[in-house]
Write a structure and sequence with these properties.
This protein has 421 residues and is α/β, with parallel strands linked by helices. Helices cover 40% and strands 16% of the residues. Strand 3 (83-87), helix 4 (95-106) and strand 4 form a beta-alpha-beta unit. Helix 6 crosses helix 8 (179-192) and helix 11 packs across helix 13.
Length: 421
């Protein structure tokens, strides 16, 4: 089964640029480039001879062109361009200077795409020339439920993905026509997680071993590459503590006391986990300066499948993690970057009244979400109505629910999940 990826529809908009595709390991970056973009030459920076070849750019690539395509053209003479794929480019020290000089000399004749597992390192940490005006950065996360539906049931006519100004509730209503089919697909998706290999295999024994290997390889290899002085075992313990407190705000001081280290050490470990494992913080949403606690944060792993290390996926905190992962991925382009257009956060006031998720900009609260395993009390949502969200949603794990009660709409997860990319 070849899984449909929405990034495919974005590529054509950026012809003539260096395309950088970053994302977590095993999200499908290399597979996507090899099978969809079909490069004419692939260089993997995990392979020593390929690294040597890359360091000889642009002379190496011009010689390759002369040998495999034809005489290297002058500017303005090349009609169609071969594609060169550089995998794991961030592993080469000084890659920015190399690719910039190569692009400036050969872009009229060759297209380039590069990948890396750590967007933070690709964009910010490696020193070198600026790629402004030359590069486009795209992220490829593990498979979204919308992509999974598009792959397994292309006959389902999903509405357009949610964007600011649209009604999320009406998009969910449009999915009601396929609610049984969507639920069947959701049960598989939630069971096997969103990493492509596990979704394709659908084997629980394989998935468990795969997740253990994934964690150990990421911590042993990538963590040591990026943070040479890190105690890997301690970072793993910090990760376990964060998962145990899933759905609650975490305390650096509390974890430091448990592990017998300083809070600054734990803070550094959490930042390393966010870099290497693409975990993320959910901050307090800026709703009311008089009624919020500012500095509290919740931690969520990159994918909800990681919760299986600590608790069954049916528990409330795990369901909240599922919703967090869906919203974060679906809104990633809007909530990340230098000038984000939307904020994703949770709300908690001094009376400890909490709401799981809020999406807003400077003027509007587009929707507020409270997560429940079953249709039950929506008091937190009712209290939050005073802030005038455009839509208030009680997100339910139970299947087939779509019902209004006053200003609140209870919606099952399989109806809401495909509304986000």
């Amino acid at each position: 089964m070849e899984i449909y990826r929405t990034i495919d529809g974005k590529i054509s908009h950026f012809k003539g640029k260096i395309l950088f595709i970053s994302g977590p390991r095993q999200a499908g970056k290399t597979f996507f480039v090899e099978h969809k973009l079909k490069p004419n030459l692939t260089l993997n920076m995990d392979v020593s001879k390929n690294r040597i070849a890359f360091k000889q750019f642009p002379d190496f690539i011009i010689n390759w062109f002369n040998s495999n395509v034809g005489p290297f053209p002058e500017k303005g003479e090349q009609a169609s361009k071969p594609l060169v794929f550089i995998d794991e480019i961030h592993k080469v020290v000084g890659w920015r200077n190399i690719i910039k000089g190569t692009f400036d000399r050969t872009a009229h004749a060759i297209d380039y795409v590069a990948s890396g597992s750590s967007a933070f390192k690709l964009r910010r940490q490696d020193k070198g020339d600026s790629l402004a005006g030359r590069a486009i950065w795209l992220n490829l996360f593990p498979v979204s439920f919308r992509e999974y539906v598009g792959t397994c049931a292309p006959e389902i006519k999903l509405p357009e993905k949610w964007k600011a100004g649209n009604s999320l509730i009406e998009l969910c209503r449009a999915n009601l026509n396929y609610k049984e089919q969507l639920r069947g697909l959701w049960n598989d998706y939630i069971k096997f997680g969103s990493f492509p290999e596990c979704l394709v295999r659908r084997d629980e024994v394989f998935q468990k071993q795969w997740l253990e290997d994934y964690l150990s390889s990421m911590l042993d290899r990538d963590l040591k590459d990026l943070h040479t002085a890190k105690d890997v075992e301690r970072v793993y313990q910090v990760f376990q503590l964060l998962l145990e407190g899933l759905g609650s705000t975490y305390s650096l001081k509390g974890m430091a006391e448990t592990l017998g280290v300083s809070p600054n050490t734990v803070k550094s470990d959490v930042n390393a986990l966010k870099q290497v494992l693409w975990g993320f913080d959910l901050p307090v949403a800026n709703v009311s300066k008089a009624k919020q606690i500012r500095k509290e944060k919740k931690f969520y792993p990159m994918d909800f499948c990681f919760t299986k290390f600590n608790q069954p996926s049916a528990e409330g905190s795990s369901f909240e993690c599922v919703a967090a992962c869906i919203l974060r991925r679906g809104l990633y382009d809007d909530i990340s970057g230098i000038l984000p257009s939307l904020d994703l956060g949770f709300f908690r006031d001094y009376a400890k009244k909490e709401l799981d998720f809020i999406v807003r900009d400077k003027k509007n609260i587009y929707f507020a979400i409270e997560c429940k395993l079953k249709r039950s009390s929506d008091n937190n949502l009712r209290n939050f109505l005073a802030f005038k969200p455009k839509e208030a949603i009680l997100l339910i794990e139970d299947p087939g629910i779509f019902e209004f009660q006053n200003s609140i709409c209870a919606i099952s997860i399989e109806l809401l999940a495909p509304c986000f990319e």
